[in-house]
Specification:
The protein is α/β, with parallel strands linked by helices. The protein contains eight helices and eleven strands. A hairpin with a 5-residue loop joins strand 10 and strand 11 (about 205-215).
Length: about 260
């Protein structure tokens, strides 16, 4: 459903079905009128607009050339489009369990499936459960009208995410920063990944982004991580500078807390 008048939003907020709001400059995906799920500039459809999506791309600070990327949650396809355009070596599979969301892909100029991109209508739990332990990056951004589905926050799910990754692979999870369950989910991630996880505040939003690694990539020395910015394209380096600083700062905080415990 495409809406051109903001006053039409209210009547589409009760049934929980995805709908689109469009203005002169952008197009947005919503489940109700209280929160934007995804947003796209009409004249820059492949760029990242919402701060949490920029922060999630922080995995480039650890692996700037992943071969296989899996995503849970399509939304308006911001992360899919960015990775498809800027990471040409990457094969991408996306699990989205809502066919009505997938049906809106043309509105957000999401590329058609090809040899690099596959968007499948399935539950993200099934995707990681069936994986062959070979994903270099797993992006978990699954939300519905009620927030984060319980099946995408369970201990079993995070255990399966760990198993789905190749050695050195990284999971990135978008969590609601103001949820009372966020610390619980972070504890579960820490347990599944043997403590190799770190949570940082997302740019310009109340979300928290968790980076969890199957291996030792998160142990990268601070100076090496900041140096990694210079290896990225100027566009990506500028985009991720704040994320890099936040990761470094949070690591220092976590190390101090561990030392004082």
């Amino acid at each position: 459903m495409l809406l051109d008048n903001i006053f039409d939003l209210a009547k589409f907020s009760a049934d929980g079905r995805p709908f689109i709001y469009k203005n002169t400059y952008s197009i947005s995906l919503l489940f109700d009128s209280s929160a934007i799920q995804s947003e796209m500039y009409l004249n820059e459809p492949d760029e990242l607009l919402l701060g949490y999506t920029i922060t999630m791309m922080g995995f480039l600070l650890f692996n700037d050339a992943p071969q296989k990327i899996a995503m849970i949650g399509l939304g308006g396809g911001s992360l899919v489009k960015y990775c498809y355009r800027h990471l040409p070596q990457s094969a991408i599979v996306v699990a989205e369990n809502n066919p009505e969301v997938i049906a809106l892909r043309k509105h957000f100029q999401i590329p058609q499936d090809d040899h690099r991109l596959q968007i499948v209508c399935m539950d993200g739990c099934q995707l990681v459960r069936d994986a062959d332990n070979d994903y270099d990056v797993l992006l978990v951004d699954g939300f519905d009208r009620s927030g984060q589905p319980p099946q995408l926050c369970s201990q079993a799910f995070y255990d399966d995410c760990y198993q789905a990754l190749a050695q050195g692979g990284m999971m990135v999870v978008n969590l609601l920063g103001n949820s009372s369950d966020t610390d619980l989910y972070l504890d579960r991630i820490q347990r599944s990944f043997g403590g190799a996880a770190i949570a940082v505040d997302a740019r310009e939003s109340g979300n928290r982004i968790v980076f969890a690694c199957k291996g030792e990539r998160l142990d990268t020395a601070e100076q090496n991580m900041l140096k990694k910015l210079k290896d990225l394209s100027p566009h990506q380096a500028l985009m991720l500078r704040l994320t890099a600083q936040n990761i470094v700062q949070q690591r220092r905080i976590d190390k101090l807390a561990t030392a004082l415990a």
